[in-house]
Predict the 3D structure of the following.
Amino acid sequence: MMKRTTTPVIASIGTLSLLAAASVAQAVTIEVSAWKGNDAEPAGMPELIERFEAAHPDIDVEFSYISRTDTDIVLPPRLQSGDAPDVMMADMPLVKVWSDAGLLAPLDKGTWFERLSPAVSATVGSGDEVYVMPLEVIGMGNYVNMGLLRAAGIEEPPTTVDALVEACEALDAAGTSPMLLTGGFPAALFVTANGLEPDPSVAAALGAGESTFEDSEAFAAALGKVRRLAEAKCFDPKQVAGVDPWSTALAEFKAGSFAMIPQGAWNILDFSTVDELDFVFAPIPASADSGVALDLFGFGWTISSQSEEPEAAKAFVDFFTDDANLQTLLEAESAYSPFADGSSGMAELAAPYDAARAAGASILFPFSVLQWPKELEAELFDSMTGYLLDIEQDPEDVLVRWDEIVEDQ
Amino acid sequence: MGKYRIYLFTLPAVLVLGIFFVYPILLSLRLSFTDFTGVGIPKDVGWKNYERIFTRSRYLDALQVTLLFTLLVVTLQTAIGLCFAALLHRLPAIRHFCRAALFMPAMMSFVIVGYVWQFIYSPFNGGLNAAFGRLGLAAFQHNWIGDPNTALLALGFAHVWMFVGYTTAIFLAGYAAIPQDLDEAARLEGTSGWQRFRHIEVPLLAPSFTINIVLSTIGTLKTFELPFIMTRGGPDGATRTLSLHIIDSLFGKYKFGFASALSIVMLILVVLIAYIQNRVLRAREARL
């Protein structure tokens, strides 16, 4: 009796143990935090996570949307207490602070690091270790309402300052307000692009205080160009100086009140929802025929040094080095790949900006790659507003303010 | 032992104050002597943060803007609140409705108020300029928050619009405490409305003045929401308050140690001003 019942019991116990072991081996969950992936800015995240989980049935992804502002508030305490997400979206300022505190795990460069474009590679690989796998480079250029331009007899978006002046004169004659060059951001983009155009490599030296803005002929000339635009009636400097570039200015461009505004490509999706808005995304008008494509290094994936699932976290990060997967994000974001051999997610309306990049006129925005200190950004916005309010002032008085901030660091 | 037992009843309140008020201040004070970035281990930097605050003109300018903004808001809010209260005291039929209506802006979120007023002040067909145009007052059209000379005033007006209901309600409560006999006796003596207001109501509203002025001063000194939303401290720093510098230092620059130092300076400023105000206004109450 005992012999007949013992063998089946042992076999059952063995089978159950094997099943339990198999299910334990599958149960890996990683937490991923990002400021993309909600309804307003999906960035293809829901689809990509689904695709990743299908490709890795042994890994579950618990996705946490945390806005960029909340990332500064929510994640530091979690990082300090050892409860950080396994994978975190971060930009270079966050990467610097978190990696200096030893809270990020160095990434395995694999084959993706060599594929990065030289400018991006120089940024993320500046130390011995690499802590971020870049996901996107996003353009900052000139939005041009082609409907208004064509009505004024201009068929192409201006890519040089001379062409811009011509366009402004034509638009003004047609009774259209040409440009919204507000002090807070658009003017800063214009001056940065034109100031760095002759020699983009000088950005690092300016940010480190090895060269000064005051002695920079290029930046003095850039401010001179702003004055020239004001004289050509591209804008009323006193009127546009204090306009909020993140709300009022965008609303006015969408309403067709102004023909042009320098801004970031992240507005393409929002502008595209306005049916009557016939616009293109062009480079910032500068001296060269191509204009300047001012690129912003956006964000990337980092892995917490406290992650209990480093292999699963690595698998998630590696998933985005595949061009086909990254393309989904880039198309949703209207952004460019950080890889030299990568694709673009930009729409057809950004063809002028694409052309500028193809012509080699791309400059990385110095703040996004930590070449210029964050404190300088606020001063740049403030001083450009001050310059617009008193456009006759000596450009040196503006540039000295920037040098003072750099010296202070 | 028996007579000290009563102090045991204060223990819960003392604990709450200690944990949620005193401890965070002591922690901020400690952090203000470090270069803490929000993560990692803070490194001691001595008085460097404080030295920076008092030797860089931009922080002293921010202090000046903060004090000017507070003076503007407190003066306007108290004066307008008193006028509304005096009017509503004389109009009992509509008093409750008007008090509720005046309170409504304070119920709205700062974000909504900020964006609404930003569009009202917009130089491109904003509500205010459009109204001036329609009324034949085009000469008054202006770039309200784009001009450093008017930006602080414009922000102050939005702030007063939001909180004048509170001030009015406190003054109305003060009016309710004024004995009606005094008003009747004054009327029998043949005094005018202005004389009753000037010589009877205003002196007897002294406690309401104290509360209004102290509360609105403390609240306005710390404010950052409307400057943050409407102007982000611009144009060219014209509306950059000390609180904005604290927020900028914390989020974006990750200078928690420096932001803590700014917070301690602001705390000392608020306590000092509140103490002086309280003493002066209480003394005034006693005299009246």
In short: Chain B touches chain A at residues 37-41, 56, 115, 118-119, 122-125, 143, 145-148, 151, 230-237, 248, 250-254 (CB under 8 Å).
